Amino acid sequence: MKLNRHLKRGPKFIKLGDGKNAAVRYRRGDIDAWLTERTFASTAEYSAVARHSQSRARTSIPARTSHVTPPWLRPTV
Predict the structure, then answer these.
(1) How far apart are the first and last CA of the chain?
(2) How do the residues of the chain divide into helix, strand and coil, expressed in percent and rounded to 5?
(3) With b meaning 16 or more CB within 10 Å and e meaning fewer, what string describes 49-60?
(4) Would you call 54 helix, strand, or coil by DSSP?
(5) What angle do CA 48, 54, 58 make, to 5 degrees?
(6) Over the stretch 9-52, which tens digit does the pLDDT of each residue have?
(7) Whole-number Å distance between alpha carbons of 26 and 37
(8) Closest alpha carbon to 9 in 32, 38, 29
């Protein structure tokens, strides 16, 4: 799940705290929705979706992205 969060592939999550090692929690409804989106009737159905998403990923990734610090990692004043 940690890798999926990092790659922005996992279900929505709640971060409890400001630190790098702060606890993460998931709402049951968000997990159920995420699992429903990934439910397939056959491997052929999955393969068609995977091919489509891979081709979109190749064209939608910018060559260079700017780094934005998340609010919980920004220094407080």
Answers:
(1) 32
(2) 45, 10, 45
(3) eeeeeeeeeeee
(4) helix
(5) 150
(6) 889 999 999 988 999 999 999 999 989 988 888 888 888 888 87
(7) 16
(8) 38
